[in-house]
Amino acid sequence: MGCASCSSEGGTPKGCKNNGTCSSGGCNKLEVYDWLANIALPAGQEAYNIVEVRFKNSRKAFYKNSSNFSLQVGDIVIVDTAPGYDVGLVSVVGELARIQVLKKAPNLKDNEIKRILRIANQEEIDKWIKGRSLEKDLMYKSRTIAIDLNLEMKISDVEYQGDLSKATFYYTAEGRIDFRQLIKNLADEFKVRIEMRQIGSRQESARLGGIGSCGRELCCTTWLTDFRSVSTSAARYQQLSLNPQKLAGQCGKLKCCLNYELDMYLDAIRSFPKTETKLLTQKGDAYHVKTDVFKRVMWYAYQGENGLISLSPERVKEVMLLNKNGEKPKELAEFIFTEKVVEMGYSNVVGQDSVNRFEKNFVKKKNNNNRNKKKKPNPNQANPNGAAPTNSTNA
After folding, report:
1. What would the pLDDT profile of 242-278 be if each residue is shown by its tens digit?
2. Is the dihedral of CA 69, 75, 81, 86 positive or negative?
3. Are 170 and 186 a contacting pair, CB within 8 Å?
4. What is the residue range of 12's domain?
5. Of the residues 72, 93, 120, which one is the last residue of a structural domain?
6. I want to staple 139 with a disulfide (CB 3.0 to 4.6 A). Which of 2, 124, 146, 158 is the partner?
């Protein structure tokens, strides 16, 4: 790879033909696997001259390789921005770039595509790295200036152009902001051209990163490349409680992961009867309470009673069919759902020891060392043979 992190921290060098994968793992969602790398072009067909170039964070754009440079994934190139130039990394080349253009920009016109000027030299790379090191201090100072002007906005990120002639400020705000005076103050302070770009809360979280409630890094930071709208109906279909604190992510919006399993729930719910229809019985009317989609169980309750009755969707359809024909069953207990419990027996099929071999009571052996010691004779004790004790002291 051609990025500085790979070349300095044991990664693979540029032009390694590693198809866009990086051994350092630092690119995350921005890396693209070139699955067409080992497929040769048909005879006489020219290579696609448009490449995808990646800049800071998730910003990408397409540029024309009009000078026919020999580009590999990870090369640092100089692109035309008019005015000035910018520095970026080549992320997709060849036929895979053609597919990306059809997918991301199908209406891209040839005269609108800017071109790649040259491959960056060491001096331009050093200047580019210097700009990256200045961005954090620039962001903190710009926040101070915005607070002094009483602007209700949050500057979340700053990006320097490759030639250090322009700085782009990314901010979030609830409404429209009149930042004309802010641009003047920033231009006087930093002596560069200023561009203000408003982003949403989801884009801000993707740039800043963090840890989600699941304990993993945010999806928008690691691998998620596009944002789809998330509504509360996704939580209702999955039988989730509508608790804003649990359903909202760090961006303050509904979690993107609510859409991950939504299609599976929608496909499963199609085979269930409508929950708005109440079941009519001689005992009374029963109303739907909740549904377990994957266990295929629906719970109903009589009005005024606390007990729940579990029914399978098929049995619910039977009751609805009876009601449609003008019949009422005696009660729903006749159609109650009973789950079969399969008992798993144990058999020693591989010749192992018994499973209760550790239940044996081990008795701790007592220390009998003291018992083996010989007792010393007591001189004052009578002789067992009947003789009187002797006194060795002379009278």
Report:
1. 888 889 998 889 999 999 989 999 988 888 998 888 8
2. negative
3. no
4. 4-120
5. 120
6. 158
